[in-house]
Specification:
Order of helices and strands: HHH
Radius of gyration: 15 Å
Number of domains: 1
Strand content: under 5%
Shape: elongated
Number of strands: 0
Largest sheet: none
Length: about 80
């Protein structure tokens, strides 16, 4: 799930137009509920301590922000062709 989150953030971060940014961000936001639900069910079925589950979920949210920054960094390198 974290690998998936990393690429979602990078996909948002590399957008160079507002339209591209908004369409990508909206598409990702519309399926985030499924990610969160599956993580919650998995943690509950595995009897993960509530504090640990919260830390993992907040870690995933933090990774989103970091990945967007990575995408911005990639875009700031300019045309790589």
């Amino acid at each position: 799930m974290y690998f998936h989150t990393l690429f979602e953030g990078i996909a948002i971060g590399v957008q160079t137009t507002m339209t591209g940014f908004l369409s990508t961000a909206i598409a990702i936001a519309f399926h985030k509920w499924a990610d969160a639900l599956s993580m919650g069910i998995h943690y509950r079925n595995r009897n993960v301590d509530k504090r640990t589950a919260y830390l993992l979920i907040f870690g995933q949210a933090g990774l989103n922000v970091i990945a967007i920054g990575i995408g911005w960094g990639i875009t700031s390198l300019g045309d790589l062709t």
